[in-house]
User: Which sequence fits this backbone?
């Protein structure tokens, strides 16, 4: 039987870390759906049309190098505004969610649009400053040269685009549990998420 955990929230709130930990704890598969939009963005940067790239997306594209750059993230949030890009990616995500053995999907619209019937819905968030600081640390540690003000501007611009778009905007599902990680350690946030999933099993 399928058991889906939907984890949504803004950039750098801790979704990725929490999703991986929940998946590992319960032995579920994990899909970072941001990678779909990033893979489309990468192909757009290479000159392809966004809708064509989304329709033609293959699972292998999600492992392409260079998907985690700030430039790709910004283009991803632009292609993600297009309704046709989004609709082209729905089947892939739903098929992943339906696999037996359980699945965790993280993104922006999993609990609201992709898997409205998910067994567990979490909305993981944190203040823009805390999220920018985490992203800044990640980027610096990965060897990217950047400054904090730029990262904060990027985070805010992406939030604004994700929240204000007409199709599948970023917002908590009515029945989502919100976890604000601003003042939580990683371990505390992971424990809260695992507890929420355990309660529904
Ligand atoms: O989560 P990540 O930062 O990798 O996502 C990149 C961009 O892809 C987001 O800013 C958002 O615009 C878009 N996205 C989306 N819906 C999802 C996942 C990501 O619109 N489910």
Assistant:
């Amino acid at each position: 039987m399928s058991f889906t955990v939907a984890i949504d929230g803004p950039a750098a709130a801790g979704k990725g870390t929490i999703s991986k930990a929940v998946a590992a704890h319960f032995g579920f598969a994990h899909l970072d759906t941001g990678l779909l939009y990033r893979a489309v963005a990468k192909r757009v940067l290479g000159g392809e049309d966004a809708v064509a790239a989304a329709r033609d997306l293959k699972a292998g594209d999600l492992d392409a190098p260079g998907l985690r750059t700030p430039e790709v993230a910004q283009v991803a949030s632009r292609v993600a505004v297009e309704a046709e890009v989004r609709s082209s990616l729905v089947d892939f995500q739903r098929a992943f969610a339906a696999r037996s053995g359980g699945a965790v999907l993280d993104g922006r619209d999993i609990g609201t649009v992709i898997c409205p019937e998910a067994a567990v819905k979490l909305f993981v968030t944190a203040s823009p400053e805390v999220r920018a600081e985490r992203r800044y640390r990640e980027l610096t540690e990965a060897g990217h040269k950047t400054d904090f003000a730029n990262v904060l501007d990027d985070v805010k611009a992406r939030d604004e685009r994700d929240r204000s778009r007409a199709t599948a905007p970023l917002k908590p599902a009515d029945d989502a549990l919100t976890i604000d990680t601003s003042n939580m350690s990683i371990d505390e946030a992971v424990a809260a998420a695992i507890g929420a999933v355990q309660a529904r099993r």
Q: What stands out?
A: Strands lie at 4-8, 29-32, 103-107, 120-125, 177-180. The first strand starts at residue 4 and ends at 8. DSSP finds ten helices and five strands in the chain. The mean pLDDT is 96.
